[in-house]
Amino acid sequence: MDQIEKAVQDSSQLDDPQVALAKRHKIFLTIIIILFLLSVAVLSFCLVDYAQQDKREVALKVDNEAEVNIFSVYYTGANGEIVVQSADTSKVIAPGTNAEYTIRLRNADEYAIDYEIDPNVKFFATNNLPMLVRMRTADGKYLLGSANDWVSLQALREFSHKGTLKKAEAGEFVFEWQWPYEGGDDEWDTQLGNQEREAGVEISFSFHSVANTSLGANGGWDGHPDHGKNIVIAVAAIILLIIAIIIIIILIKKRKDELNNAVDELPVGAPAAPVYERQGAPFVAQIDLALLDSHFSGGAFINLVTLKQMGIVPLTASAMHITASPNYQFSKSFIVFTQSISPEARRIITAAGGVVVITPN
Amino acid sequence: MKKNVMMRVASALLVAVLMTTCAISGTFAKYTTNATGSDTARVAKFGVTITANGETFATSEEGLVNGVTANTVLSADTDNVVAPGMSGSMAKMTLTGTPEVAVKVTYQATLTLSDNWLVDSVYYCPIIIKVNGTSFKGATYASAAEFKAAVEGAINAFTKEYAAGTDLSTVSAESLEVTWEWAYFVDEATDLKDTKLGNQAAAGNAATIELTVKTIVTQIN
pTM for this one? Predict the structure, then answer.
């Protein structure tokens, strides 16, 4: 008897459809995870390789980059007369001179661009030049100084401006400078003009830009044909994410249903072999004990899968129910795995020394 | 327990995808460019110098004495002197330099006449000062203050402007010209007054005259 119970346990572990299904789920899930991780790894390697080989530059155009004219070789007075004139071709500054320089940035790229304007100031001979500066956008918003206030060149050194230009968008920034005519220290102004070692200044503007591939900066999901180019890989990643989530949800739901279906109803009292009736199965094959008797010899293990393989039960059946005619003469000892069984059939099987095991679908 | 495993797997997948997305963003962020534009200027040169040449007044005056050139006036000490028949020019200011800014040359005059220009307690100054050819005769004014105001006004009003890049050493002819003279003979009455001034000086009450002219070169805006 102990051997039979052990055999039943082993058999149930081997042939239990639930166990088999769980195994299949595990294998499926493992494959999904491995494939997913492989996809991520391949995608990452491809991107790294792409980034390393990509020598393209963001098409940020500085319209007047080639010839920056912050200063001049001459300046005119109120009546148009020349009041400052360089003796050679070098540009000069002097008390009373002033000018403005417009920086025009244009995004000629297919994507949005994050840019940074980073001015720098280099002094010659002395860093005590009484120049004042300020900077504003074309629409009058001051980025440095204000409508009433000018700041020193030292403040310009510490200044930088960051922004974003959308595709084909342009930005204008007006840089203004002046050397006040009577700024309060005429003696120093004169001294600067008389120095043997020429005092001077170099003002430079550096422009750093980087492609901005964010959806917000590129107009969002509005169907623009160009937008797909820069975010195609991001979309692929999002699709992968969605697929992964869907698979996980399906697996979780399926597992949950299986567990719910495995909850049997109240047992029917049977001291020799507990028998559980199942309900709610979509298609339950009715099998008479005589049918089993005719197909199997004694000592056989009988379950739904076996019966399906033998063509006794349709493949669409999700459960079986064993019945028996009253007073059926039965002498074979079966080990039966079934989803439900009639009390008469159960009594006949157990009376012959067989075992009935109720299993889920 | 199986549910926990599922959740763990789901979490791991989510983290993996998020990390992938971040990596993608970071990768694309390296798509950059840089540009720089600069301009340089030096301070415009000024470099104007002013040099005074000679003296307005002197300690002596030469002339023919018995057909021989000799001092017709000679100071007994080192002081400059004025006397009938003497004349002179204000120290000429020489400007040099080629400033890269437009400049204006102006003058600031101070004529100082002592209180001893008196004859019989009445103001009398026989000195004639010419400013760019315009004569200001001291004897025609009612007081030393009026004479002073007239001369200073004429000098201070004289300005010249030069465009940027002008070589100032070439425009000295346009600069201020101030001369003076004490006429040797006008009439008998004047001779008498001149003599009295000379005698006052001999008595230690010499009338003195001082003309200071400051030359200023200023940038024009």
Answer: 0.60
